[in-house]
Amino acid sequence: MTAILCRHFGLHAIEIAEDIANDTFLKASEYWAINGIPENPTAWLYTVAKNKTKDYVKRTAIFETQIKQEIKLEQIDTEKEFEYNDQLIADSQLAMIFAVCNPANSRESQICLALQILCGFSIGEIADAFLINTETIKKRLLRARANLRNTRFQIKSLSEKQIKSRLEVVLKTLYLLFNEGYFSKANKHQIRINLCSEAIRLTLCLTENRMTNTVQTNALMALMCFQSSRLEARIHINGEAILFDEQDRSLWDQSMIQRGNYYLVNATTQSAKSPTKYHLEAGIAYWHATSTDHSKWVNILQLYDQLIIIEDSPITALNRVFAFANVHGKEKAILEAEKLNLIKNSSYNALMGYLYTYTDMDGSMAHYEQAIRLSRSLTEKHTLLKEIERLKCAKINAGKQQRST
């Protein structure tokens, strides 16, 4: 909705578009609670947004004095009906992503702004995506928004050269959008299927356009398909997270796995260049989704060894250690993990808790407890608490057996 409103007002009036979109959904929450959800909710929302836009144009003095002349010059018709078909919405969103991902801002600021404006991320969620503090994100967003206003960016057709130069940042934005849906640390729900679906829909649009149908785009699409195939099996009906080894494989979506195979083949046959981050992550996801043989971990570890060279991030390093443990054993993996020095990271402590499970139950529980203190995900906390309870029971049973002998 923000994207379509920005088509109407111009990108320089992002705040106006966001305010109207927020007011529209606020009215929906009030009206629908009393009168029920309308037969066509999308049409209802866009009709309300259109009417609010007309009201704003008529009554706001700021609009009359500062923006009206610009709108006349840009030949925007305030009476024009808003369309709201799926194609236009997708086109508007993609057009706005490409507009926001403008080199006038830094790469990181472009992504932050796109995640906030188009994907609805909070400051905390963006900070989680970049693994940095919220104050830094706030400053980036303020500077980026000021740049947009000052340079008067517009949502308009870009040249093929401009599209290709911005594609990498757009793909990163969609990748982070999908990741927040796949494993959310800030939200009360660990899995947000709506965000995963939105990321897939927008990436699919890119694969269907000649200028953006690149090997990277196909590799990212393959990754999303493989990961999405397991979404239904990752959460119990009561909201608890289900670990990979405990998932019901009959719930895995085989059609999504087949689509992942299709896009991965496209990603590897279009070009003979070195694999990208998305190729390697898609390869890892492929082995998880298609193989039950323990020997798959050798292939997964090899892919992580390549990925760590491209992106030496804490998450990549921790995932590599998990794969390392499955190939070389938990004791050697502990030494690998300790080299990372991530003692204040919840994922690090959760991994160490897992690695110490059979050799040091007390040490394992201590790491799990530290992971709980550091984590902001309620679902993750609950999963870790279950592991602690399981270890306590195992320790009690072990003590009983010792006394009986």
UniProtKB/TrEMBL annotation:
<feature type="domain" description="DUF6596">
    <location>
        <begin position="166"/>
        <end position="267"/>
    </location>
</feature>
<dbReference type="InterPro" id="IPR007627">
    <property type="entry name" value="RNA_pol_sigma70_r2"/>
</dbReference>
<dbReference type="GO" id="GO:0003700">
    <property type="term" value="F:DNA-binding transcription factor activity"/>
</dbReference>
<dbReference type="InterPro" id="IPR036388">
    <property type="entry name" value="WH-like_DNA-bd_sf"/>
</dbReference>
<dbReference type="InterPro" id="IPR013324">
    <property type="entry name" value="RNA_pol_sigma_r3/r4-like"/>
</dbReference>
<dbReference type="InterPro" id="IPR046531">
    <property type="entry name" value="DUF6596"/>
</dbReference>
<protein>
    <submittedName>
        <fullName>RNA polymerase sigma factor SigX</fullName>
    </submittedName>
</protein>
<dbReference type="Pfam" id="PF20239">
    <property type="entry name" value="DUF6596"/>
</dbReference>
<dbReference type="GO" id="GO:0006352">
    <property type="term" value="P:DNA-templated transcription initiation"/>
</dbReference>
<dbReference type="Pfam" id="PF04542">
    <property type="entry name" value="Sigma70_r2"/>
</dbReference>
<dbReference type="InterPro" id="IPR013325">
    <property type="entry name" value="RNA_pol_sigma_r2"/>
</dbReference>
<feature type="domain" description="RNA polymerase sigma-70 region 2">
    <location>
        <begin position="11"/>
        <end position="60"/>
    </location>
</feature>
